[in-house]
Every structure is written in structure tokens, then in C-alpha cells.
Amino acid sequence: MFRSRCALCIKSTSDRASMKHHMIRHLDAPLIEAKCDQVDCEFASDDLLKLEEHLEKTHSDVTEAKECVHCTFSSRHPPVMSAHALIHEKRFQCHLCGFKCLSNAGLERHVSGKHLKVGRLVCDVCGLEVRNGHLLQRHKAAKHKDVKAYRAGGQNK
Prior knowledge:
Radius of gyration: 23 Å
Order of helices and strands: EEHEEHEEHEEHEEH
Number of strands: 10
Distance between the termini: 54 Å
Strand order of the largest sheet: 1-2
Strand content: 5-15%
Shape: elongated
Number of domains: 2
């Protein structure tokens, strides 16, 4: 069976398509260089799997595995855990409202959806703006029960 592991966060998937989709989240994140924390060892890598391998093979004084507080990732090695923790750091901040997110793509979605209101639909009864048709239908069903039902095109039945 095919298993693919992410070199940045050690996520594992059962197919290449899922891994490609997962890797999109890392595209605009800077590479993390993880360094061995052992004295007189200069090993460093931007691949957490390689650092984990190095620590297992070279330094036998491993401790009990610790789990990430944000996900199911775990490691027995502090430098691996430190490098992994950076993945959860929200480094991209909106200059308009202070919202923080993990990626530049997420920040662009936030700005276009919240501040530029790109792709918004407007309720023809009260003028409320929503992100998609499903939310518009849900809004009308909840708030405008007394108004005649609407077809998908906004026409009265």
C-alpha cells in the first residue's frame, strides 16, 4: 500500500493526490531549518523526517515521546518538536483588522471575503450580504419565513 509522509510536518496520507493537496498549505510558509540539539553536533535539515532519523541513529539518549498540543504529531526529540511547533504559528496578519492565519493564501481569502466582499450574494428582502448560495437560502428560511418562497434565480414562485 502506498504511504506518503510530509517532510515538513510528518503528516501521512494513503495517496499522492492527498499529499499534493496537503502540501499546498506549506507553499507560502518559509522552510523550517531544524537543528540537532546535541553538543558538538552540527546536523541541520529542513526535513523533519531526516532530523528524526539522525537523532534516532546518532544519539541514543532518547526520551519519552511528547505529543503536539495542536495535532497528533509526536516525537521524542525536543528539536523536532520545536521545529514542528512553528507549523502552527500564525505568521500572516491582516493589516486592516489584525486577523492572523497560517498562510498567505489564507490571508488573501480573509481580505477578499471580509474586507473586499468579493463574491458576495445579497438578500433581496433585507440586503444582508453572505458568502454563498447555501448561506443565502439558510438566511431566507430562518429570517423571512413570512415572505413567499424563492426559486434559485430569486424569482417568486
